[in-house]
Amino acid sequence: MKKQWIFVLASLLTACMLLASCGTQANIASNAPVVAAPIKTDIVIALQGEPSSLDVHYPDDGNMYFVTYNVYESLYKMNGETLKPDPCLATGSKKINDTTWEFTLREGVKWHDNTDFTAEDAAFSINRIIDPDFGSQNLSDVNTIEKAEVIDSKTIRVTTVGPDPILLKRLTKLDILQKAFYEGKTTDEVTRVAMGTGPYKLDEWKTGEYIKVSAFDNYWGEKPSIKNATFRFIEEPITRLSALKTKEIDFAVNMYPEYAAELPKVFSAVGMETYWIRFNQINGVMKDKKIRLAANYAIDLQGLADSLFLGYAAPAQGQMGREGYFGYAENVKGYGYDPEKAKTLLKEAGYNGEVVQIISERGRWLKDGELSELVATQMTEAGFNVELKFISWNEYLETMFNKDKMPHMQYSSNSNEFFDMDKTYSALVHSAGTQAGMKNAEYDQLIEAARVEMDEAKRETMYAELTQKLHEDPFALFLLTLNDLHGGAENLNWIPRQDSKIYISEMSFS
């Protein structure tokens, strides 16, 4: 009996100890600090197409820029708020005379192979892109530069062909490449590689699928929050939307306005893109000014802005660019939608139903295909005999930049990273412009004179005169100016820039 009581007592004591122990564990668990989930440091970005190259000096390719903005750097970088150039790989400049500048280069900058950035690299890069034999599609942006030369290990001298009031802005578009990596190579040899000084370095490009970059450990500037980025190529906006909603991706560029309500997070601001269609004024039916005017009167721009872009676009005002650009003419307005006037102009021009071919593409710019189709429809309704043809992106670039292959009309979009009409008119109107469809000595002289005029008031007057002339004698079918519209994950933090650039280093996750 005594043994039984001892056994029962021992059992009770054991039970009490177990209960006490359980109670203690419960209290510890309830008072334990909550461990926050780690902040996300990888991002997946959906582009609407695959870059044609990563040789940033050669193509004018928006899909490429989404990647290269993060890999390469320039002597100056545009400030996204003030729209003025800030020092980047250069720390300062000194104007020697109207055509000579010296630039002091930043110390301690490393290439992605951990070698030192030098003046030799800077001078080589400038001379490479301005070489007419190189054939850069961006040559008109920087062809005011005559040469660059090394003064010492951290100083270069840049000589311009004449006074250049926007030289520092031009340099924001001229990325610096490593001389040892690029010298002696054709652009075809460096299409799929990159050697930059930016916050991210190229890791991998898998054709048709993705490009991967990662944070460069020895970057001279502020270290980014996001360490790894994957650029995926997803052409269809609806597919990009689905990928966002399922959290397969974190950021999608150039989304359709009708999807805005479904985006986890909307990123939008007034953008730099102006849609236009180039006229071939050298050969073919569009040489006649009245026919070119008829095309502009035939298009219901406000209707297209409302129906296709739902408030995220506005009609171009009979010119390229938008309010806020230096040289934009506020007194010049749009033509208005007047299909009857278009028909009258066609009759006056003696138009007899000759085929007008429009070349376009799909997927590079927001709703480019749909807009091209509606333009073709409205031109047809006004009396044009339109043949619309869609081609691949690589073929499109070859057609746009090879004047021997220039069609009657070619759809495009123009962005102005300098916020100065010199960039637009030099590329699209001047006879030597890379995308110009015309040759006009009078316009060339006006553009050249404004380009070297250091007095801002006089420059404004010159551009006002030129814009009025080009309104009466259009070089393009002026379409729409667009807002940027991107979608992102709910926990993605980013402020859209006025210059439309997307820098991963300015992004973070909550």
Given the helix and strand composition, which structural class is it? Answer: alpha+beta
Number of helices: 15
Fraction of residues in helix: 25-40%
Give the biggest beta sheet: 11 strands, mixed
The quaternary state of the protein chains shown equals single chain
Distance between the termini: 68 Å
Overall mean confidence score, pLDDT:
92
Low-confidence stretches: 1-30
Q: Which geometry do the CA atoms define? A: globular
Beta-strand percentage range: 15-25%
User: From the alpha-carbon coordinates, what is the Rg to the nearest angstrom?
Assistant: 29 Å
How many strands in all?
A: 19
Describe this structure in words.
- With 510 residues, the chain is an alpha+beta fold.
- 31% of the residues lie in helices and 22% in strands.
- It has helices at residues 2-31, 62-68, 119-130, 139-142, 167-171, 179-182, 237-245, 289-297, 301-309, 339-349, 368-381, 393-401, 421-428, 441-452, 456-472, and strands at residues 42-47, 76-78, 85-87, 90-97, 100-105, 145-152, 155-160, 200-206, 210-215, 228-233, 251-252, 265-279, 313-315, 355-360, 385-390, 409-414, 476-488, 492-493, 508-509.
- The strands form four sheets. Strands 1, 8, 9, 10, 11, 12, 13, 14, 15, 16 and 17 form an eleven-stranded mixed sheet that branches. It has a four-stranded antiparallel sheet with strand order 4-5-7-6, covered by helices on one side. Strands 2-3 form a two-stranded antiparallel ribbon.
- Strand 6 and strand 7 (155-160) form a beta hairpin.
- Helix 8 packs antiparallel against helix 10 (339-349) and helix 14 packs antiparallel against helix 15.
- The radius of gyration is 29 Å and the shape is globular.
- It starts with a helix and ends with a strand.
